[in-house]
Each structure stands twice: as C-alpha cells, then as structure tokens.
Amino acid sequence: MDKKKVLLIDDEANIITIIKKFLEDNNFFVETAENKEKALKILKEKTFDIVLSDYKLPDGTGIEILRFFRSFEPNKPFIMITAYGSINGAVEAMKEGASHYIAKPIDFDDLLKILQFYTGREENIEEKNEFCGIIGKSPKMKQLFKDISIVSKSEATVLIEGECGTGKELVARAIHFLSKRKDFPFIGINCSAIPVELFENELFGHEKGSFTGASSREIGKIELAGEGTLFLDEVGELQPLPQAKLLRVLQEREFYRIGGTKTIPVKCRIIAATNRDLEQMVEEGSFREDLFYRINVINLKIPPLRERKEDIPLLAKHFLEKFNKINYKNIVDIDDRVLDIFMEYDWPGNVRELENAIERAVVMCQHDIIKEEHLPPRILKRKKQERIEEVDTSLSDTNLLEIEKRVILKVLKETNWNQTKAAEKLGISRKQLRTKMKNLGLLN
Predict the structure, then answer these.
(1) Under DSSP, is residue 257 helix (H, G, I), strand (E, B) or coil?
(2) What is the Cα–Cα distance from 366 to 369, expressed in whole angstroms?
(3) Which option is the CATH number for 393-439: 3.40.50.10610, 1.10.10.60, 2.130.10.10, 2.30.110.10?
(4) Residue 165 has what DSSP assignment?
C-alpha cells in the first residue's frame, strides 16, 4: 500500500519532530512547515492526502491555510490542532471547513485512528483481522463488523453496550467514519465525568451574561458536532435532571443555549454507549424508560474478551508491535506460556487490560521474548486465586444451598454482576435468579 502524504504545520520544533517520527513509524510520508508562509508555498507546489495544522502560527493562523487549501481541495481532510480548551478556535475551524480538530496535548492513539479513517484505508470484513482500527477474527467480532457497516449507512440513534475496556468508542468512531457524516466532527462527552450542574452548559453552551462568569458566548457540544456525530459515553451514569434534558433534545430535535431565546436545530446523529444494564435500571427506576427507548433504536453489543478468546493472540501481537515502536524496543515474540496464561485468564478489564499488560511487559522485558515474569502481578495473582477457588468449589462436605450460592456468585462475577447475562448463563429467568439471590442473601 502506498504511503499517504501528510503536510504537518506547527511552529514548535519539538512537536514537529515527535509527530513526524510517530507518523513515519506508522507508514505515512510526512512533510513539515513551521509557519503559514512556508505551508502555503508547499501547498502550491505539491499535493497531499491530508493536512494537519496548528491553529496558532507566528505569521498567521491555520484558518488562513485551511481557506487556501479548501479553494482547490474541497473534500480532502484538514485536521486542526487547537490548544487545550480553545473551543472558539475549534468552532471557527469547523465552520471554515475543517474535517476534524484535536486538542493539545495530543493523544497519539487518537490521532492515528483519525488519520487512518480520513485517509480511507478500507478493510475487507471477511478477509481482514482489523476493521476501522478494531482488531478481531472471532465470529462474534466479524458479525459486529458487519453490523457496524450496516448501521453506519442509516441515520438511526445507536446504543452501544459493552463492559469497560471493550472498545465502545472505537465502535462509535467506526460508525461515524463509515457514514455520510464522516466529513463533519465526531464529538464525545463522557457523561460520568460531568457534574450535574455543568451538564446543560456542556451540552447546550451559553450566551454572554447568562450567569456570573459568563463573559462570552460558549458553544455547546451539540452545536459543535454540527452535522456530525455526538457520542454520549457512559450514558447510564446520567442523573435524573440531565436525563430529562437529553430526552427533550431527542424528542424536539432543538434546544436553547443557556440564557438564549433562539431555538437551535439539532443536526447531529446521536450515538450512546454504556457498561450498565439499562433495562435493569429502567426496572429499578434509576433510568427513564422513555429515554431508553429513544437511544435504543439500534442496539450493538460488544462481546467481552473472555467470550472471544481466539482474538487474544492477535491482539497481543498487535500491542507488542505498537509498544515496541513507542519504547524503541525490538522484542520479537511472546512466550507460549504467557499466551496460555492469557487464554486462561478471564480479563475483567477486557482489551484495555490486555493492552496495559503488554505495555508493562514490553517495558520490563530486557530480552527478545516476553516471559511470565514480565506480566503484571495482578494477572499472576488472580490466576493463582482462580485455582484456589476451583478447589474450594468442590462438592465434598458442602450442602446443596452452599453449592448453589457459590455457583451463582461465580457466574455473577463472570458477568460483572449483570443479572440478565448471569440468568442466561445459568439457564433460568432473570426473575428466578433474583428470587434465588434474595433467598441466599445476595440482594440487599
């Protein structure tokens, strides 16, 4: 595959060096410019697949370069780099036709995913083991890849369900970048990280003078997303008041900035994600039923790593390659005993935990092959504990109620205390499971 050509524009020499090296290591051809004048000169003489420019330059702004680039390249991707929290610069860039913006300090994993999506690296679902940055060859993942392809062509609201660390944001980004909205922003909100009193401002923005300290107008995430995608991560963590605010937006498809009187239409697509059992939360009264049905038009479930263990060696080798580059290592392989441990482990932290384990192993390994001693202590300790529990759950000298309690506890732990999934594994209804849990003292 030919290397995609990137023009990188930034006035800080150290940033230029770091980003250039990172992109070249990931099979991009990179040319650089340290100011507006040089960038415009290069663009007049050469063609690029993508432009990556800092917003603030010593002799102008990235906006001026963007306008020039758009005059002859209306469709090619232009990524604006903004200072952390510089929302106004990001808004201006999107209005002028930027494809995306990223904030400093740059998350290099995020940058790579964005560039790969925008440069159109297509994947054959049947033949490839990677799809839009998501790695897997198991039947469950192949089906997920097909579902993403189908869903991306629609305009329906999507709910992505999966345990922590399974890659819910990766799936959301894949839907966005495969959709007709790919040339517009992908804007994410972590619902669990926003205090209740700030949620409305984060979502809708505010007008100047609308409250003490509101010295200027601020654009909210819905408006910033424009005709792109708004990703609501951990939507199950929303408190009742934010739930009501979100429901109104989904129903009316319009909103007001705080302190504003003019209605603003919602043009973006909504994708939500959760690691919670929203149906159970609806039943318990902690999540609005009407909101649940609004966000659950299309449902995608990401399997936990323990349910697709055939992907573990593939993921481990991928992360080995990744962290070799980052840490300037040349580790050639992973010992078979380590892979055996990986295949036996239940991975409560899913793909993220596996990635962290490989990163630690690469850092600690001083030889050519990752060995058992390079693994995180928690994995080795947990494996030892699992062996103890297996012996402890033997049927000798144990009454029937105690055996039943241990089995139910084991399955609940395996399913992260998701009662619906636990009931399915036990072959009983959720109602039966709750009755047994109550009788065994497992419910408050």
Answers:
(1) coil
(2) 9
(3) 1.10.10.60
(4) T
CATH superfamily membership of 4-118: Response regulator (3.40.50.2300)
DSSP 50: E
pTM: 0.65
Instruction: Give, for all 444 residues of the chain, the pLDDT tens digit.
Output: 568 899 999 999 999 999 999 999 888 999 999 999 999 999 999 999 999 999 999 999 999 999 999 888 887 889 998 875 555 667 778 778 888 888 788 888 778 878 877 775 444 444 567 788 899 999 999 999 999 989 998 999 999 999 999 999 999 999 998 998 988 889 999 999 899 889 999 999 999 998 888 889 999 999 999 999 999 999 999 999 999 999 999 999 999 999 999 999 999 999 999 999 999 999 999 999 999 999 999 999 999 999 999 999 999 999 998 899 888 888 999 999 999 999 989 999 999 999 999 999 999 999 899 999 999 988 887 654 555 455 455 555 567 777 888 888 888 888 878 888 888 888 888 888 888 888 887 775
Single-letter residue type at 110: D
Buried b (16+ CB within 10 A) or exposed e, 174-207: bbbbbbebbbbbbbbbebeebeeeebbbbbbbbb
CA 29, 132, 73, 98 torsion: positive or negative?
Answer: negative
Domain 310-389 listed as CATH 1.10.8.60: yes
Query: What Cα–Cα distance (Å) separates residue 195 from each residue in 61, 102, 198, 200, 272?
Result: 34, 23, 5, 10, 18
Tokens 């601020």 sit on residue: 218
Residues near 120 by beta carbon (within 8 Å), at least 6 away in sequence: none
Query: Domain 130-301, what fold?
Result: Rossmann fold (3.40.50)
Q: Do the domains 310-389 and 4-118 match in fold?
A: no
Give dist(CA 341, CA 326) in Å, integer: 25
